[in-house]
Design a protein that fits this description.
Blueprint: H1 2-25, H2 30-62, H3 69-73
């Protein structure tokens, strides 16, 4: 998966470089290559980001850690502000 992500990112980069070179030369097919490079690069960025988040989540699960940061906050840790989990506002210590 990581190799696929790297290959896609490099392909998008090369496509952008080709479009930039065509821009320098004022090639007649620049509008197509510019639009194609922009579209491909944005699609690759979204896919690679999604894959990276999934890979990080799988790694955390494999190591026995919470899959998301929200899950880490939901564990049975005392609230540093003195609130009890699930308590209504105003049920905490005075001043909170």
């Amino acid at each position: 998966m990581l190799a696929d992500m790297a290959m896609q990112a490099e392909a998008a980069r090369q496509m952008v470089y080709v479009a930039a070179a065509k821009s320098e030369r004022d090639d007649p097919d620049l509008p197509f290559f510019g639009a194609a490079a922009k579209c491909f690069a944005s699609d690759v960025a979204m896919q690679v980001t999604t894959d990276a988040v999934q890979a990080a989540r799988r790694r955390r699960l494999r190591e026995g850690l919470p899959a998301r940061a929200d899950d880490a906050r939901r564990q049975d840790h005392p609230d540093l502000r003195g609130h009890q989990p699930g308590a209504a506002p105003g049920d905490g210590p005075p001043g909170c």
